[in-house]
Design goal:
Radius of gyration: 61 Å
Largest sheet: 7 strands, antiparallel
CATH architecture of the largest domain: 2-Layer Sandwich
Number of strands: 7
Number of helices: 6
Number of domains: 2
Length: about 250
């Protein structure tokens, strides 16, 4: 079985190279990997559970790194035993190249399987291998170059306070009430007094009373004055009543 592919990773080549040699990163990215232990600088021990079609098996084996050319690439090869399910062995050449601020990882794989796995047919094995490779490199890219967190949304600007429409009529009503309640300055009232016509009438009444007293008997003077006084009082009362009616 042969397979080729490539993946663009948004990270510098040195960082990608370091991740390809980090057992913890590889363990987190290999589908079904249960453990990956570094034995030497160029040798690893791995245990993984692999499912191909109806067959699921646990493979245990060793992986060797060779043709090391940091940070440009290497060859990784290994062999694993899956008990009754069969075995798998093979290798892959990995190459790293710069592409802008990112790194392009290219690989070509050659592998062999035996036992029950071989009976499943090349098509199913190829499809499973491609799926596992796609899962590995997608996870690898997420670990090496995680997506930047989204910027927090800007806090909405506070809305201006709503103007109460009902407040305006209330204010106008209050103002009107205040105006109505406040005393209205009345025009100054002239001091009460008798007009010239009223004074002349009183004088005329007094003279008339005096003349009546002269034309009467001896007590005419006093009676004339009394009559004149009564006339004056009547005239004054009539004047006051006229003022009220007017």
């Amino acid at each position: 079985m042969k397979m080729t592919g490539e993946q663009l990773i948004a990270a510098p080549r040195d960082k990608v190279w370091a991740a390809l040699n980090d057992p913890e990163v590889l363990r987190a990215c290999i589908p079904g990997c249960q453990s990956l232990e570094k034995l030497e600088d160029d040798r690893l021990k791995a245990v993984a559970v692999v499912k191909v079609g109806p067959i699921s098996a646990k493979f245990a084996g060793e992986v060797t790194l060779s043709d090391l050319d940091p940070p440009n690439g290497y060859r990784i090869s290994g062999e694993g035993q899956g008990g009754a399910a069969g075995f798998a062995k093979g290798g892959a050449n990995v190459r790293l190249t710069d592409e802008g601020g990112a790194t392009r990882l290219a690989y070509d794989v050659d592998a062999q399987v035996g036992g029950k796995l071989a009976q499943l047919g090349g098509g199913l094995i190829d499809a499973t291998a491609k799926q596992m490779a796609g899962t590995f490199f997608k996870k690898f890219a997420e670990v090496v170059a995680p997506a930047a967190p989204e910027a927090p949304a800007a806090a909405p600007e506070p809305s201006p306070p709503a103007t109460s429409v009902a407040a305006a009529p209330a204010t106008a009503t209050s103002t009107s009430a205040a105006v109505a309640a406040s005393p209205v300055a009345s025009a100054p009232v002239a001091a009460p007094g008798l007009p010239v016509g009223g004074l002349l009438a009183l004088a005329a009444a007094a003279v008339a009373g005096f003349l009546l007293g002269q034309w009467g008997d001896g007590s005419g003077t006093l009676s004339g004055l009394i009559v004149g006084l009564l006339v004056v009082l009547v005239a004054g009362a009539a004047y006051a009543y006229g003022k009220r009616v007017g």
